[in-house]
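Sequence in, structure out. First:
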Amino acid sequence: MLQTKTIDGLLLRDMVLAGAALLDKNREKVDALNVFPVPDGDTGTNMSLTMASATKELSQKEYLNASEAADALAKGALRGARGNSGVITSQLYRGFARALDGTEKITPPQFAQALKGGAETAYKAMMKPKEGTILTVARVIAEEAVKQAEKAPDDYDALFDVILSVGENILKKTQQMLPALTQAGVVDAGGRGLLYIYTGYASVLRGETIPEEHAEAAEPGTVVFEDNHDAIAELKFAYCTEFTIQNLYPEIVEEDIDQLRRRLNRIGDSVNVEGDLSLVKVHAHTNNPGKALEFGLTLGELTNLKVDNMVQERREKMGEGAPAVRNAEPPKDFGIVAVSLGEGFNQIFTDLAVDQIVEGGQTMNPSIEDIGAAIGRINAKCVFVLPNNGNVILAANQAAELTEGKKVLVIPTKNVAMGIAAAVAFQGDVSAEDNAKRMDEAAQRVRTGTVTYAVRDSEMDGLHIHQGDMIGLYNGKIVVTGSDVHDVTFDLMKKIVTDDDELITVYFGKDVAEKDAQTLTDEIADEFGDCDVEMHSGGQPLYYYLISVE
C-alpha cells in the first residue's frame, strides 16, 4: 500500500533511478522486440542509454524541489537521447518537466497531468506520429491516469494500479494497431520499455528495494578509477569514459576482457579494464565514448555510465571560452557531419571531405550530444548533417535545434549509401539552400539493398523466415530469404535493378572476404551489363552487403 500523498525531488529521483535500473536489466528483452528479425534491434539499448544520461544529470545534486529535479531529468535525457525511442523518451520527460514548472511537491493529479504533458510534447516532436508505438502507450496511460487522479486525488496507490494495468492492456493492443507488429507477432518495443520505467517508479513508491546490481554506488571490491583531468598537459582525447559491465554473457571468456582492453587502446588512452567474469570496471579517455560503450556491450550489460568532457572542465576551471585557435580563424562557409560505422565507410566520407565523422549507425545510434559535439567542432557558418540511418534522423534534428551560432541543415539520409550520394552532390560555391536541395535529391535517387541474417523465426509479407536464414532487404523491406549469402545477394539485385539504372555500388562488410565480394561483383557486372559496377570495402558489422543502385 502506498502511503505517500506527494512526491518531492528526492523521491522523484529514486523513482527514476529504479525505472532506469529495471529498463537496463531488461534491455535485451526490449531489443528482441525489434519488428524485423535483423540482428541490430536496439530500442532497449537506446532507451537505456538515454535513461543513463538522465539519471547521471539527476544525481549531480540532491534536488528537494520536484520541479528542479524534473528539469534536471529532462535536460539529461535530451543530452543523451539516441535513436527514435530515446528521443521520444526525452520528449516525454521534457513535457513532464514543463507541466511541473514551479511545483515543489507533486500530487497525484499533478503527476497525471505531467504524464499527459509529456505525451503531448512527444507527439508534437514527431513529424508523422504513428499509433501503435510508444506514443500510443504514453498517451493512453496519461489519459487514464488523469481520469483516475480526478476520482482519487490523494491516492498514488490507485493511480499506479491504473498506470500499470492500462499500460499492459494498451501495449498488448499495439500488436493489432500496426501491420508490421502484427506480422512479426510482437508488441511495440518502445512501449514495453516505457512500462519497465513506470514499473520501476511504482516499486519505489511501494517500498520495494532497487536491485543491488543497479545501485548507483560502486560495488564492494570494484576498482574506482581516479583521474586528475587538470594534470593532462595536452588533451588528445576529450572524453573521460567510465562504465561497469555486469551480467556478462555466458559465452564470454577472460580473453574477451583482454580483447576489450586492446580495442579501447585503439580508440583512446589511459585505459584501465579491471575485473573478472562476474564484473568488469572500465575507464578510458577517447574521442568516441559511444564506440567505447559499443565495445562494452559486446560483453554484457552496462551500468554506472559516466562520460566527462575534460576540455570543457578545463575551460570552466580556467575561466576560458572556446579555444583561441578556433576564434583566430574566420569560419568557412560550409561543413559536413556524417554518421558512419565501418572503417571503409569512414574512409570514403573522409575522402569526400566530410569534416566530422560520428561513429555509430546500425548497432549503436549516436546521441543528440554526440551529434551536437561534432557540429560544434566545425568552424563553419553552415553545417550539413548526414544521419545515414532512419533511427538517427530525429536525434540529428534535435541536435540541429539545440545548436546556436550557426545554421544546421539535416539531410534525411537513411543509410550510408544515401549519405555518400549526398556528400558527392555537395558543391562549395552554391548557397546553403541550393546545396541542401541538391544533396537531398541525390540521396533520394539512391535505392539500397542490404543482406544480413535472421535472429528469430518470423513471417513477413508472406515470407517464412527461420532463425539463421540469410535475408535480403530492399529499402528496409525483406524481399529475399535463403541459406547462402552469395545467392541471396544476387537474387536481391534481380529485384532491385531496372533497365533505367546506370550505377551499382557494392559495399562489403567486415565479415566478408574481399575475394568473395569480388566474385559476386563480377557476376553482378555480367548480369547487368548496361550498368557500371563498383566495389568498396564498407567494413560494416552485421550486414554482409550494402548495395546501392542509381
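Second:
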Amino acid sequence: MAKKKTTNKKTKEISLENILFNCRDYLRGKAQMTDKRDLLLTLVFIKFIGDRFNQRREEIVEEVKAHGIDDEFMIQRQLQNPNQYQQEGIFYLSDDCLWDKLIELNASDMALKFDNCITELEQMEVGKDANGKPICPLKNALPEQIFTKTALEAGVLKKVCDEINKIDPKKFKETDLIGRVYEYFLQAFSINADKEEGEFYTPHSIVELIASLIEPYDGTIYDPACGSGGMFVQSLKMIAAHGGNTKAVSVYGQESEPATYRLCKMNLAVRGISYNLGDTNASSFEKDLHKDMKMDYIMANPPFNLKKWADNISSDNLLNDPRWKGYGVPPTSNANYAWILHILNKLNVERGIAGFLLANGALNDSDTLSIRKQLIENDKVEAIIVLPRNMFYSTDISVTLWILNNNKRGGIRNGRMLRNREGEILFVDLRTWNTNIYEKKYVKFSDEQIQKVCDIYHTWQTTEGKYEKPELYYAAHTNEIAEKGYSLVPSQYIKFVDRDTEIDYQTALSQMSAEYKKLLERWEKNKKTMVDSFKVLGYEG
C-alpha cells in the first residue's frame, strides 16, 4: 500500500507593511495622524529594544556555559549586570520596560504603564561624559505621555499591541527597522503633502551607494538634515561589513522637525551608535548646532526644493552669512544651493568629501548659475550621478547624487593611489537602471549595481586619459563645462547612440503595411460575424 503523501502547509509570512496597515485600521478615527504615528513608532521601539534585550540574555547564558559555569547563581549575576548589555549597545531593561511583560498587562492598565516606561527610558543612564555628566541617550527621544494623551479605548490599544507583537525579531534584527516604519508613515500618512518640499526616507540601497563611493571609514560623519538617522545606521553597517572600526567614526547630525529629531535619537540609541545631534531640534540654516566644526565626511538627503527656508533669518544675517562667502546668497525661493553651500562650508578644507542628494533641477537652474559656475571653477564638484525614478516611497522623481571633494589632487586613499583629477568632473547617468523592482513598483540597486558604480568612479580616480562609455559615463574637463554654460546635466556630456540611423525605413514601412493589412482583414471578419449574429436574432441591417 502506497504511503499517503503529506504536505506541510507553509504559513503565510506577514510583512511589516501589513502589520502597520492593520494597526492603522484599528486606529482609524481614534487619534490625530501625528499621534498615531508617534504611538506606533514608540510601540515598535519598545518591542525592538525588548527583543534585543531577550536575545542578549540568551547569548549571555551561552557565553557563561561555554566557560564551563553551570551554577545558576553565577548565571543570574551575569544576567543582572548592566555592562553585559551596554557593551553590546543594548539597553539594560527593568521588568517595567520589557515588552513581554507590558503586553501581558490588563488592557485598562496598558496606557499608564507604557507612559511610565517612556519616563524610565528617558532617565536611563549608560555612563558619564568627559565632564562627568550623565549620558542619557533617550532623553527627549520619546513622545511624553503619548498613550494617555491619545486616550484610546483599552481594547483598541490591546489590539494594536497584539498586532505589533507579530513583528518577527529575527527577521528585522539586522535591518533599519525604525527607519522602515518611518518610511511607511511617510507614504501612508503623507506627512508632507507637498512632495516637492517633503522629507523622504532614503532607501538603504542609495545610502549604501553613497557610503561605498565616499568610504567614510574613519573620522567625523555629518548629516545636516538627518531625518530618522537612516544614513548613519546604514553607513556604519557598511563600515562594519567591510571590516572597518565603527568606534573610529564620530556621528554628528541635525534635524529641524521635533518628532523626527526624537525618532533619530531613538533609531541611533537602539543601534548603540554614539552620536551628537545637538541639545534640541533646529534648522541647519537658522541655527548651526555644530558651528565651529569641520567634517571629514558628509552624507545627506535634504528636503527637495525646500521653499521659504530663509523666512526666519533676518536680511542682515542672510547677507552676511559666512557660508555664502565667495559664492553669493543662494535663492530664498529654493534651498537646493543653500544646502550645497552649507555642506561645502562644513567640509574639512583639506580632505573633506560629501555625497548628497538633490532634485535634478539643481543641475541647471538659471537663477543659480553664478554659484554653480563658482563651484565648478573652484573645483569642488567631483561627480554628478543621476539616479532612476521610483526609488523613493513618497515621490517618483529622478534625483541626483552629488559628490563634492576638497581634495582632487591625488594621493593614497584606502589602499589606492589616486591621480590628480583637478579640472575634471565625472558624469554618470543611471536613469535606465530601473529593472530591479521590489514591492510592485519601487526600484532599488542590487549589490552588483552598486559595485559597478563604485568601479566606474574608483577606476576614473586612478586612470589617466579619456574616460567615457556611451549612455553611461563621461569625464568632462572644466573648459568643456564652461562651453556648455556651466550646466551639470549629464546628458550634455555623455554620448547617446543615435539608433534612428540604424533603421532600414523601407523594410520598416513594409512591415507596418503588412501588419495594417492583417488588422483590416481581422476587422472585416469580425464585422461579418457580428452581422450574421444579428440576423439569427431577427435583426436585418
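Remark: Residues 223 and 253 are 5 Å apart (CA to CA).
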